[in-house]
# Entry
Amino acid sequence: MQLDRIRNFSIIAHIDHGKSTLADRILEVTDTVSGREMRAQVLDSMELERERGITIKAQAVRVLWKGHQLNLIDTPGHVDFTYEVSRSLQACEGAVLVVDAAQGVEAQTVANAYLAIENELELLPVVNKIDLPQADPDAAAAEIAELIGGDPAGVMRISAKTGQGIEAVLDAIVERIPAPDGDPAAPPRALIFDSSYDQYRGVVAFVRVVDGSFRNGEGLLAMAQGTRFEAEELGFFSPTMRAAQTLEAGEVGYAITGLKDVSRLRVGDTLTALENPAADALPGYKDVKPMVFAGLFPTDSDEYPDLRDALEKLKLNDGALIYEPETSQALGFGFRCGFLGLLHMEIVRERLEREFDLDLLVTAPNVAYQVITTTGEEIEVHNPAEMPAEIERVEEPYIRASIIVPKEYVGQVMELCNDRRGRFDHMEYLSEDRAVLIYELPLAEVVIDFYDQLKSRTRGYASFDYDVIGFREGNLVKLDVLIAGDSVDALSLIIHRDSAYGRGRALVDRLREEIPRQMFDVPIQAAIGSRIIARETIKAKRKDVLAKCYGGDITRKRKLLEQQKKGKKRMKQVGAVEVPQEAFLAVLNLNENGK
Amino acid sequence: MSGVVRHLYVHLPFCAHRCGYCDFVTVVGRQGEHGTYVEALLAELELERPLLSPEVQTVFVGGGTPTFTEPEELRRLLLALPAAAEVTVEANPETVTPEVASLLRDAGVNRVSLGAQTFDPDLLVVLERRAGPDDVRRAFYRLRDADFDNISLDLIYGIPGQSSSALDADIDEALALGPEHLSCYELEAKPGTRFAHRYGEELRRQEEALEDYFERVVGRLTHAGYRWYETANFCRLSGAAGGRDLRAHHNLAYWLGRDYLGVGIGAVSTVLGQRWRNTPRLPVYAASLARGHRPPRELEELSTDVLQRERVMLGLRLDEQLQVAGIGPVLDTDALERLERLELVARDGGGSEGESLTLTPRGRLLGGGVTAELLA
# Structure
């Protein structure tokens, strides 16, 4: 296809504003799928995405419209995935910005719009869901115009659900989004913007061809890594895989590599042809740094190798996930994993459990800390248990949070942010009724329970987005928990000194509830260094025996005993104390103010 | 050719009324069927007689309420049972008339287990017992009058609404009668019983308070000169009883892992590594035996491993030493050491009989948990 007949675009939106429905309607209107084949939200192929109503992985679908080839590159919609959105946007020249006619501009609308502008994309603003009774398209259009500049009248009004206005959107894509530029005659270059793994065909790379053209079967080279392989199949999604003889400049498609080792091909690398190699690689992606960490342990220690394999597979199409082996005295062998944020962590956990059939225990999350020891050494700590004893100072990541909220909830949001050591930066009104609050907050205060609190205090109206803005010194201490005198590594926390006492108290109380009584007294203590700041005792059981046992019920009593044994097996042994797995999540359930 | 089984259980399921907490196989009323049932029992006993040793040591007639059975039928049954050193019959207080007492005595019964449960009139109502406190005392004296010198009282504690002083009062009442033997059970709301439905919630709430009750029962009875020989069973010390060993020898056979034969509906037998349970349905049971067939049974093969586990589970309920020889493979030696350090289990290096285990008093209160941990 000639370059001027190609358009590459994304749809960006706040969660639930109708991105996937619009994508589906585009497939239908362009006859890419028939109505009969139409499943709701075709693009969300992963079962998990379907259930959560969010899209995790970018995928590209080719449709034809009035003699043009349009490549729709899907993007994830949630706060944790800014990095992936940005990656997808680099493969496009334009983006359709969708805003719900009833909700108006939300936090991710703003974040995504800015990302698109940073990537120099042409933005096509669209107000969706105009069929809803509570829709207020004019207000939403005014908010968009306020956000990105321009005239509210220029904002398209559609209903992806009913199909109203879809053709106009397609026309606008053709008319207003620039054709890709690139040199069809130059040596071929393509950006790998995503990948996935197929157990039979190996690594499948999703590419945007910039220059030249690639032929089926030719030898390819990943320029940064130096990996060589043969293009076993080239093609595109429409919406299922369609093989093609060539992929040409400006086009988006896939290359089946046959590579079985997922580490040999990295997203962000540039593909070129071995026979006619390009001189320079395309600018790649910068490495993202995970900010949230948690330990993942198999419930059944025999599953450790399976967990390792599963993480390796996930890592392939989730470049942001990092992991390193971790050994916990309490939980055995597992991995300390780094995530972009809490949702990312949750999705990784669920994918491991569902797609790989693993049963996992995930410890309470923490952030990355930069520690300067008394000897002047600088180290990054991902696990509270590894916090060195001799500390000069500790720095923790801070975020700049933007929270959009109806004005009647501004007070509640401020209170929450202040409780979480937030520093107020400023507030703007988006419209008469809605404000944007900008706060700087320690990320550590956000990773546990912040989002739920925000939602519950604003009856679900608040939307939230953040950027990490750097590391700052904090008055932080390591809080250890001792069960029957043994420090339990998996329960250590790093927290602000001011909240140490309250959290320690709450943690000890919660553990007293979670840990069943044993055959001996079990002291539970919270300590900072050698100083005990809270203590509780789980009193020993005084009776644990079945009253009656005679000839008629020996079998039943034996089975009860076996049940009791099985119950014990599910516990983790900490010294002589049997601790249920839930107890390791106790820190997640401490409510506000540590009470 | 004669058999090896020295312990015989006979089930008489009939009751005047089913108490709310009961989950035994019982049949209410049906006086007309008592004769048919006894007939079937005797037929089953006849079929299984080859299993019995010529020297049967114990016979236990349980229920139901055996003493509710039509007197003529009861007599016929008792007279047909093999002679044994210990012949026990269970009785409910309101059924013990002077006539029934002498019937039992004359038919060779030498031990009666009397279901007193409590002496508190209100708590008797909660348990849906028919007897009042006076009935309990009267029954006890009638048995003494009929020359019974081995009477056991059943007590239940942890009844909804029972205060600790009410428990003390019950123990006082029981001790005042001077029984040779006492069985004290914590009330269990067994799933599916009316009682669980009505009081389950309340029982769960008072669970922690009940721990205290068990200790109190043990403390008071041992203080009064009773031997706490099994988790829930107490007997007069032999020194104070003219050298007699007043433990329930029939039940002791269960706890020591001996073979036993059970006849009647729902009755369980364990013989030579096999365990079977008769059908609990009276018409099916009676019809099979009327045709000369064994009743339908559920059969369970007991592997060596299972038998060893049961040996530990049952043996540790006793105050006797449990010989490690023969059960070694099912013991978790790490757990054993841990439990020894916690002073829940005591290990005896052993004389001629080799190494043995006993639970300490606190270990016995926690016997279930200790056993679960001890088994590999």
Notes: The domain at 189-273 of chain A is CATH 2.40.30.10 (Elongation Factor Tu (Ef-tu); domain 3). Residues 497-514 of chain A form the longest helix (18 residues). Residues 48-58 of chain A have pLDDT under 50 and may be disordered. The longest strand of chain A covers residues 391-406.
